[in-house]
Amino acid sequence: MHLMYHGTTAKNANAILRDGNFHTGTHFAHHMEDALNMGGDYVFSVRFDEKPTEYWEWRCPEPIPTSRVRVVVALNPSLVWHNIDCERAVNRAILAERYDDGVEFCGDCDGTGQLEYYPPLMRWRDTEKVTPCEKCGGYGVYTIDGSDIYEHKIG
Predict the structure, then answer these.
(1) Which of 6, 20, 124, 151 has its CA 20 to 30 A from that of 61?
(2) What are 82's strand-pairing partners?
(3) Domain that holds residue 70
């Protein structure tokens, strides 16, 4: 048995519960903090019989029923203060730890994933304020060899 996490918005969380499944291509992460940062402040904890991937994030190849959902939590953080330099240092350390030297920070957006910066955990509530960087696709990083960021294993 293995748990993975899916982060989303309140509107999408209600749609998933109403429809009774996660659609094909839905992203899941091994760690709740990745789901929270990448998806939104409503996080699903979902049970899998086996670990579906060794990669840090996984996209399901077929619909997954909500009968596998262990719990859905709403984490509604309020940003009190934000240190962009510290965030970049933490992100660089995480990347160095997770990936072999095949991933670098995007120079166009300085690793934020956005052309005009909007702090994490707040950007998912007001997505119209965020302009994703075209070079890195809004991730803040890109692969040196041009492969998909999801193809890189955790180091």
Answers:
(1) 124
(2) none
(3) 2-74
Distances (CA, A) of 27 to 34, 113, 150: 11, 18, 10
Question: Based on the structure, what is the number of domains in the chain?
Answer: 2
pLDDT in tens, 99-122: 666 677 777 776 766 666 555 545
Token pair, residue 96, equals: 């160095």
* DSSP collapsed to 3 states, the chain: CEEEEEEECHHHHHHHHHHCEECCCCEEECCHHHHHHHCCCEEEEEEECCCCCCECEEECCCCEEHHHEEEEEECCCCCCCCCHHHHHHHHHHHHHHHCCCCEEECCCCCCCCECCCCCCCCCCCCHHHCCECCCCCCCCEEECCCCCHHHCECC
Q: Which two tokens stand for residue 111?
A: 């690793």
Together in a domain, 7 and 66: yes
Which residue do the tokens 């659609």 mark? 23
Contact 123, 41 (CB under 8 A): no
Picking from 74, 102, 132, the residue at the C-terminal end of a domain is 74
